[in-house]
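Title: Prediction job returns without error message
Component: structure pipeline
Severity: low
Priority: P3
Assignee: unassigned

Description:
Job completed but the reporter wants confirmation the result is attached to the right record. Sequence as submitted:
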Amino acid sequence: MLGEIRTCVLQHSASLDSASVATLLALVPGERVRRSERPIAHALSPARLTAVDCPLPTRSRSRCTGVGTVSTHAVVTGGRMLQGSASVRVERGEADHRRQWSHYLARPGVLETIGALAEDDVAAGFLAEHTPSAALDLGAIAEQQISDVQFADQLDHRTPLRARRTRLRWAAIATDSPAGRAHPVAEFTIVDDTVRTLHVLAPAESVDDVLGFCENLALHDWALTTLLTLVERGNLGATDLAAFGRLRPAIDHLLHLWMPGAHVAPSMSVLWESLEQRPGFTRQWSATVNRIRDQLALHTLSTLRNRDLVEQTATDR
């Protein structure tokens, strides 16, 4: 399986309630928006299909063509965070030529290859930092999904939280192993300020659960990246009130959304456990949040002390 997830903030001045989110994500007439309220509000739009017929990226530059449909959907978490997610299952085609489109449409979310398929070669090529422009571009498809939501008239297109979008490209390869006797393993890489990659090896019976894990990982990576950026820009060590004003969007819209592992299948919990050890998402998040709270407490105490001194001076006079 291959996928790319773009994560950003919803362009609205306030968090949306569940009913508004359901209306926003009703992108396919007649299809239901999947919603959950616990432990955090989470909504998933109906899947849409995009037909593709293009080369697949390969590390060896060998020729491999994929024909079929890519599945995309939008995700809104906490009424504030928006994701566009595009994914596809790549399978070796039984024919060495293109078939009628009715054949591919009958298998939604599947690309069949024309030519030899080497799973490791395609996964490495897809995760490479630079891929040929003519190759499969799941990022562009995910970006279109985000645009369809962000341009909705329901949104006022004003947001108090400005942050860059992040991109998570992921590839998952199914491994043959006895059921219940193997766990998925993953390699997470920070390519640059906004691009991340994830390479997963998962037992065949749980490979379909990787998508939900990747969306959850992309969401929390975006939240952590955004918080660190706001702290850096906000000059947290400063004592002036303006410094805390610059951090208010993080306090109002980010701090309560940290729930790693929510809406992730139990088969993928081991992956979150490994990421908590290294690079240590929650440790870094908690340290940053505690730093913000400590600075706010110190600023409050300093303000109260200065007020008391002014009142005492006035009384003495």
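Comment from assignee: result matches the submitted record. The chain has eight helices and ten strands.
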